[in-house]
Write a structure and sequence with these properties.
Elements lengths: L39 H8 L4 H4 L12 E4 L8 H5 L5 E5 L7 H8 L3 E6 L8 H15 L6 E4 L9 H14 L6 E5 L4 E2 L5 E2 L6 H9 L9 E4 L18 H11 L6 E6 L17 H17 L4 E6 L22 H12 L16
Parallel strand pairs: 1-10, 2-3, 3-4, 4-5, 5-8, 8-9, 9-10
Antiparallel strand pairs: 6-7
Helix pairs in contact: 5-6, 6-7, 9-10
């Protein structure tokens, strides 16, 4: 979770305030989809989604599955079976430094797969240490049928892009030939150690500086992740907060000759609570629900480069009232119902053609 929750899938554990060094206030599944499961334009849009190998002809890359929908925390809250009923079978699970993947194994027993988040705390960590840990993690998850590792949770709050580039390059080299997709964090404007700002509108910014700090100027990058919290139809904090940062950052990467899949590994709106400090601020349940539908519709209709969209989050925690379900009885909010109806409407939930309210409760 942006701004301070290193592992929201574990409820309130792991949520600590982080220093801001960007203009952004926060940065903050379904199974692999076969076209036969989908209807009409949706099938066409998803069938056209790029893979890592298809997009980048410069190097052999692991194949990226087609677009999937996830809800963050469903495994940690032991709610996989409830989400599977509406066709969501993916999560994003934080394994820290790679030493404990018990939550990943538990999720698989629930029928839930995961994009695995490697999040050891990057500040001051050596590239060699990152490389060794990521390779060890890959060796643990590949036999489980998983092959996607997100390289850090909002690492831009912890270090400069050049340091992150050295760590990413070492980890990527260590994974050579293993068939693992290593997903790099993305961000916009950031503050340098001397207090000045590197701005993408002036030819700098995190994406540009990260790419140009890599030995092969971005040929190493398998995919990017993004946390586009904020307003739906405008950008705030300069150009760096809101749903529209997804196409903006994608276009910035393409302008720097890196055209790879994108993973929306967190996105959502909060209803209130002490951690509800997104640029948009608190919204009502109807807006939260409508915007979940818009995330999904925009992705399949306009943003074919998105491979994965993870809605934050299944339940409320210390970061705010983002949850699709209420505590303690897991009653559905309007956002859960909106997600369920979208999944059912697109043929992704195991339900009869007539929507039953029982599946939404």
């Amino acid at each position: 979770m942006a701004l301070g929750c290193s592992d929201p899938s574990r409820g309130q554990a792991g949520c600590l305030p982080m220093p801001l060094n960007l203009r952004m206030v926060r940065r903050p599944s379904r199974p692999t989809l076969g076209a036969a499961l989908l209807c009409g334009a949706v099938a066409a849009a998803i069938a056209a989604a790029p893979t890592a190998g298809a997009i980048r002809a410069t190097a052999a890359r692991p194949a990226v599955p087609q677009f999937r929908v996830a809800v963050m925390g469903m495994s940690g809250w032991r709610l996989g079976p409830k989400l599977r009923r509406i066709g969501v079978t993916w999560d994003r699970i934080n394994v820290g430094d790679d030493s404990d993947i018990s939550d990943v194994r538990y999720a698989l027993r629930q029928g839930v797969k995961a994009v695995v988040l490697y999040d050891p705390g990057f500040g001051g960590r050596s590239p060699a240490q990152c490389a060794a840990q990521v390779k060890a993690l890959a060796r643990k998850i590949l036999p489980l049928g998983l092959s996607e590792i997100e390289f850090g949770n909002e690492a831009y709050y912890q270090e400069q892009p050049a340091a992150y580039a050295a760590q990413y390059a070492a980890a990527h080299a260590a994974l050579g030939g293993m068939g693992v997709t290593l997903i790099a964090n993305s961000a916009g404007d950031y503050q340098r150690p001397d207090g000045s700002w590197s701005q993408d509108a002036r030819g700098g910014g995190w994406i540009h500086d990260f790419i140009h700090a890599l030995p092969a100027r971005g040929a190493e990058i398998d995919a990017f992740s993004i946390h586009p919290y904020g307003p739906m139809n405008q950008l705030t904090d300069g150009e760096d907060s809101g749903w529209l940062e997804l196409p903006r950052y994608h276009n910035l990467a393409v302008a720097n000759h890196v055209n790879v899949p994108w993973y929306v590994t967190e996105v959502g709106h909060c209803l209130g609570g002490p951690g509800c400090i997104t640029p948009l601020g608190p919204v009502n349940q109807q807006t939260q629900a409508a915007d979940i539908t818009k995330y999904l519709n925009d992705t399949i209709s306009k943003y074919s480069y998105v491979a994965f969209l993870d809605i934050f989050a299944i339940k409320d925690n210390a970061t705010g009232r983002f949850g699709l379900l209420l505590s303690p009885n897991n009653a559905p909010r309007a956002s859960y119902r909106a997600l369920a109806h979208w999944m059912i409407a697109h043929g992704l939930a195991r339900t009869p053609p007539r929507i039953s309210e029982s599946i939404l409760s």
